[in-house]
Design goal:
The complex is a heterodimer. Chain A is mainly beta. Chain A is 0% helix and 50% strand. Chain A has no helices and 11 strands. Chain A has strands at residues 5-7, 10-13, 19-24, 31-37, 44-50, 53-57, 64-68, 74-78, 87-94, 104-105, 109-113. Chain A is globular. The mean pLDDT of chain A is 93. By secondary structure, chain B is an all-beta fold. Chain B contains no helices and 11 strands. In chain B, the strands form 2 sheets. In chain B, strands 2, 4, 5, 9, 10 and 11 form a 6-stranded mixed sheet that branches. A 5-stranded antiparallel sheet of chain B has the order 1-3-8-7-6, with no helix packed on it. The mean pLDDT of chain B is 93. The chains are: A mainly beta, B mainly beta.
């Protein structure tokens, strides 16, 4: 079975541009969460979606938005990119919204803003 | 106070050594506890969950002290392949809440 898949793997954008990152969860998983990992830091929670509805949001500005599709895949959008948005963006999927079993992460999208 | 605090290291140890990492968390409502391993420029991977009674997986032993809000990871007989960053992770396990990660502790095992 395929794990969590993310695309693209790498991306270079210019300040002020917009970016869309994509995630396909493990088959059967209905919950998708997004995390941002800046170099030297642990991952930080951005969003959680379950059954196409937002179930949780971290402390990120409104420039960050996401959605989940009927097939449970998800997109993360970031508008008006800043240099500080350069990071590894990780997607994780799980059966449900709780975290009791931990999450399986995709290999991430490395975004560089120049 | 940060939600999850870890000594960033690096810990530089020879092969065969025993090394211990510690972690403290601030939210007393935390219910789930994990250690993740992250190799350079890769995604974090679940190493083990941590239970109140303590648990062991081969050379790895994790302990949880809820009263002190303290988690530990012991690695015995270190291998070169253990070189990585070890992330301490906690969660309240409520719907819609997140895994809260520490900054990670870097381990370098040398021959």
């Amino acid at each position: 079975d395929a794990g969590v898949t993310q695309s693209p793997t790498h991306l270079i954008k210019t300040r002020g541009q917009q970016v869309t990152l994509r995630c396909s969860p493990i088959s059967g998983h209905k919950s998708v969460s997004w995390y941002q990992q800046v170099l030297g830091q642990g991952p930080q929670f951005i969003f959680q979606y379950y059954e196409k509805e937002e179930r949780g949001r971290g402390n990120f500005p409104d420039r960050f938005s996401a959605r989940q599709f009927p097939n449970y895949s998800s997109e993360l959008n970031v508008n008006a990119l800043l240099l500080g948005d350069s990071a590894l963006y990780l997607c994780a999927s799980s059966w449900e919204t709780g975290t009791i079993y931990g999450y399986t992460f995709g290999s991430g999208t490395r975004l560089t803003v120049v | 106070r940060k939600e999850v605090e870890q000594d960033p290291g690096p810990f530089n140890v020879p092969e065969g050594a025993t090394v211990a990492f510690n972690c403290t968390y601030s939210n007393s409502a935390s219910q789930s506890f994990f250690w993740y391993r992250q190799d350079c420029r890769k995604e974090p991977k679940l190493l083990m969950s941590v239970y109140s009674s303590g648990n062991e997986d081969g050379r790895f032993t994790a302990q949880l002290n809820r009263a002190s809000q303290y988690i530990s990871l012991l690695i015995r007989d270190s291998k070169l392949s253990d070189s990585a960053t070890y992330l301490c992770v906690v969660s309240t396990n409520q719907a819609g809440t997140a895994l809260i990660f520490g900054k990670g502790t870097t381990l370098s095992v040398s021959s």
